[in-house]
Amino acid sequence: MDEFQLAEETAFVVEEVSTIIKESVEGAIGGNAYQHNRVNQWTTNVVEQCLGQLSKLGKPFKYIVTCVIMQKNGAGIQAASSCFWDNTTDGSCTVRWENKSMHCIVTVFGLAL
Amino acid sequence: MYNKEKASRPNKKRDSLSSLGSHEVKAKETSPKTKDSISTVSYIDDPGHHDDNTRTVVQMENTYQMEPYKRFPASIVNDVLKDVLTSYLQEIKYEAELCRQMTKTISEVIKARVKDLMIPRYKIIVLINIGQLCEQNMCIVSRCLWDASKDTFSSYTFKNSSLFAVANVYAVYFE
Q: Does A56 touch chain B (CB under 8 A)?
């Protein structure tokens, strides 16, 4: 029973992480239109909020958070990732968010210690 | 009924995972609270997470190793990135389907080249973004919560007349 709980605590839980990401994005840029002079600050806010919430989870994980904010202009973008890690303990989660003027893609990778 | 069988494995499995589609990708649409934004979540569904046997954490013996013997050579990886991106994308014009395949292929190729460097005890994450050049603005940012003395990253941006490509490689020391 103890081992089961230990495994629960040290597994990468996607639902929790995706909730955190969505809240961070909504909090930082929800309801705003794309503005070039503010986008730097927005991306920093999104990423820092995500990391803050993730570290509060208290799990023995190293995190990498990536955020892409792109103006909606009809241009296309493709993204791919390839990871060399331990499948049983590590994981990733991507949240794509958009509103009328921009796209925001946030990816969190969690690597177990 | 909790299954008490323990799978005894001498080493932790180090696996490669890529977004090439050999695992399920689940997408969840969430209804927007405010009418003007939509969000979608996607994640790779690992077969390992459904397997009861892998729930038990494998106990590793201490190696008493405090520091990595061989550090991750960020500058060599930078050259690898430059090499791969230039050779694959020099003559390519942006097309949705072609670039989709290209991102997946390039990420696999870069991962293989970095693995060939044989740096022990480092986990590797390769992230590629290829986008169309279209008078739009964009900002790509990443931040990491890790051990700054041991973990590092390498990044390279490539541009031609119709597309741009950003490649990021993160190397995380496995303690």
A: no
